[in-house]
Design brief:
Order of helices and strands: HEEHHEHEHEEHEHEE
CATH class: Alpha Beta
CATH architecture: 3-Layer(aba) Sandwich
Structural class: alpha/beta
Number of domains: 1
Helix content: 25-40%
Length: 199
């Protein structure tokens, strides 16, 4: 079976959320939070250099090149041994100026190998959140563009919520949150794509 490397990401896709999270952590603690990234996805090394920076405005030709890189990546990643890069954990790590512990979870061993190469201090777990509980709890869980792609999104979200500590922050895309987070009365929105669990 092919390693399930998920969807292609692109540079700084969630940068504004990561920067806002950094502000919230500075203002509201806790000291040295555990920050977890679930399903970070990745990109092949050759395609990564051609991806758009989602945080910057780009001319039309540059956007076309970025789109072509994303589609090419979907083919390239199926080549055994094609080297991968992970973007989201690296960008989150660089956006946070508070001391923290980074945990990354994915169902792809190749993605986790890329994380281990790029962020050797990160703790990595290979799990599928559709049917496995997260092996540890966290003060922050970033789960962008994952829940909505699961075979059982409600079970995956339940496993994520169970791992979120009281007072913790959940970073999640609108598509995954819509109609699903409503069932958790102790989790409320605090900013765009950022929610907080009651203490």
């Amino acid at each position: 079976m092919l390693d399930p490397v998920g969807s292609t990401s692109w540079h700084n896709r969630h940068l504004s959320s990561f920067r806002r999270l950094n502000e919230l952590l500075h203002a509201h603690g806790p000291a040295e939070p555990t920050v977890m990234v679930v399903g970070p996805g990745g990109v092949t090394v050759p395609a990564s250099w051609l991806l758009n920076d989602a945080a910057a405005k780009a001319p039309r030709l540059r956007k076309l090149i970025g789109d072509a890189a994303r589609y090419s990546d979907q083919v390239l990643r199926r080549i055994p041994g094609m080297p991968l890069r992970t973007l989201e954990p690296v960008e989150l790590q660089s956006a946070l100026t508070v001391p923290h512990r980074l945990v990354v979870m994915d169902r792809s061993q190749r993605i986790l190998a890329a994380v281990a190469r790029q962020l050797p201090d990160a703790k990595c777990y290979c799990i599928d959140i559709s049917f496995q509980k997260l092996p540890e709890s966290a003060d922050v869980i970033s789960v962008f563009n994952v829940v909505c792609r699961l075979d059982d999104p409600d079970a995956g979200l339940a496993n994520i919520v169970a791992a979120l500590r009281p007072g913790g922050w959940l970073l999640i895309d609108d598509r995954s949150a819509a109609g699903r987070l409503d069932q958790y009365s102790d989790i409320r929105p605090v900013d765009s794509k950022i929610y907080r669990r009651a203490s």
